[in-house]
């Protein structure tokens, strides 16, 4: 059994370079919230299934950062699955993708995404974006209780 997901950010990202850059950006911010990674859509569903099946409401992530272009199960499929789970659907899902496709944007919001962010290509710009994500989703956003 893996460690509880209390006060974590779940990052669903298949690119190891992007995972490394995200880890560095959060560390530079001094964020105390640990990151848990899933490298593909199926791994994300398995990780989040722990949360959905747990009776402990403290085992939920504060936010899910979700890439769209994933192996096995796409980010949109993961988003659809998350929003269909009563224990997960109130967790904010932030799409963090390199896609600028308007179809992806519209579909993500139609499926319940809380935000759609395009990954910048420069590491310093990514750091700035993560600083804003951290401030808003972990600093200002009010977390809704889990539905049961």
From TrEMBL:
Phosphoprotein in keyword set: yes
PANTHER family: RESPONSE REGULATOR RCP1-RELATED, TWO-COMPONENT SYSTEM REGULATORY PROTEIN
Stretches that traverse the bilayer: none
Protein name per the record: Two-component system response regulator
Species classification: Bacteria, Pseudomonadati, Pseudomonadota, Alphaproteobacteria, Hyphomicrobiales
4-aspartylphosphate: residues carrying this PTM: 67
Example GO BP: phosphorelay signal transduction system
Keywords carried by this UniProt record: Phosphoprotein
Species annotation: Methylobacterium durans
Domain Response regulatory: 8-134
UniProt cross-references to InterPro entries, sorted A to Z: CheY-like_superfamily, Sig_transdc_resp-reg_receiver, TCS_response_regulator
